[in-house]
Amino acid sequence: MAKREVTSEVAGMVWEVAVAAGQTVEAGEALMLVESMKMEIPIESPVAGKVVEIRVAKGDVVDEGQTVAVVE
Amino acid sequence: MTDDTDGWQAAIDELRARKRQALAQGGDAAIERLHARGKLSARERIALLVDEGSFEELGLLAEGQIPGRADEKGVPADAVVTGWGEIGGRRVLIAADDGSIMGGAGGILNIEKRFRLRRIAVEQGYPYIGLYEGSAIRFQDSMDAAIMTRIPAFKEVADCAGVVPQVAAVLGPCFGRPPADVVFSQFAVMAEKTGFLGLSGPTLVRGGIGESVDIAELAGPKMHAALTGIIDHVAATEQDCIDAIRTFIDFMPSSAWERPESRKSDDGERSCPELLKLVPHNVRKPYDVRPVVEAICDRGCGLEFKPDFGRSLVTKLARLNGEVVGIIASQTKFRGGVIDANAAFKGRRFVALCDAFNIPLVFLQDQPGFLPGKDSEAANIVYWGNTFLAAVQRATVPKLTVVLRRGHGAALWAMGFGGEYGEGADIVAAWPSAIVTGTGPASAVFTIHAKELEAAENPNALRGKLEQQYNATGSAYRGAMNFGIQTIIEPQDTRRFLIRALSLASRKLTRKLGPKPQLFP
Description:
The complex is a heterodimer. Chain A is mainly beta.
């Protein structure tokens, strides 16, 4: 199974991390919420599979395009 | 009376033979090569595009002369098939590049055939559909100054814009002249794997500036559907392209002098309770506005423009109680719905389309304003934001605005506000919890009250109190109290309200038909 990097579509602050490494997720399931423009924007898993790695923590500032998680 | 019919029969037989020869185009082998690459020939495309048997060709027997090869047989139809046909019973004009001959390029006659068709389009009021494949101008002709200096400019392409609907389908490598046709068209569709568009192809780019780039990266959907936004719709196959064109034409009138046809298919009184689930009451939660638009509009018909570009707006042709409308809806799922330069450009192009062709505009607002910051300034948000705003304010078609949850900043006027001065929407409505302010309450608090928050014992409590204050002063009810918002509606009544308001505001359309001041390109 191929590893996929999941990137943030927005610059903002990690508001809440919803999953942990090892957890099974569905396609489209929110891995975390990034606060941007005063909204909680979900970062969704592009595939159904397993979370390999979460690279950020609540309160971290992220850039647009930054890899925030890896799924497979 | 002499019996001379033998003479006539011979003449008719000769005409048929000449036509058969011209209809063979570049030959069976060349057409097979197109098929092998997932493409259709010009006449196969036309046959799928028009109602069966409705195509009448002009210029079949034109023959292009290649400079320096006067002793050779002329190029059949000078590599472009031109004529008229019907889509859904309505006449359209069509020019289809013939990719089976010299890559679809022709000479002066090729251009003159298109020119004449465009003149007919503008004088008579028929949509013009270009199926492009190739550079339009044959290389040999372009290298002969005698021809190059006499090629007409693009004015006839521009003259059609906003007068009759123009469609451009990019169905092959289209470098050189076709981009002009695309830019002035109202609906540009690209075949995903075989369509390419740009100034110059990879070979010329390498020779001219020394850059190595593959054709898909330079000129394919990634460039034009996502980065430049010049292409409105990417289709997986040529059949899908053709279906999209037929759908677009169905939404359009034949010219700026007419309104689109009405096609009633859904209950105009239908309530939409699903909106209460689709749109979170909590303003911090984003949502996908596409199902919202589908719930509000007549079910089962719509055509979205530029879905992968300027994604904080959804621009879509749809119907309300059978009448064509242009929906411009905030997509909070993308960056909270903030309007960046790309979204503003997309919005402005869509407004120009609707204003030109007598299509009312419906704004569904839920946006935090234009995007600030260095990157946005460098992308010229000042220019693109204000040209979008100006286009909306100048549009003469009926305009309706509904603020679903938020409307902030100058983007308010780009999304239909305009006050009593007759510029903005005919009617401004809002959902009950909507907030309309210069800056979002949360942003206002940290901008204006930074010092107080720093000095406060309990900054979070103070922040909460101040936000609540601004939510109250910014409430849609205060807007309604001062008649800046003309009505507040329950969300589930949105469809019913829009249909009645549209009916009220559409009567002026009959007095505003005809080409408007140019908003193109």
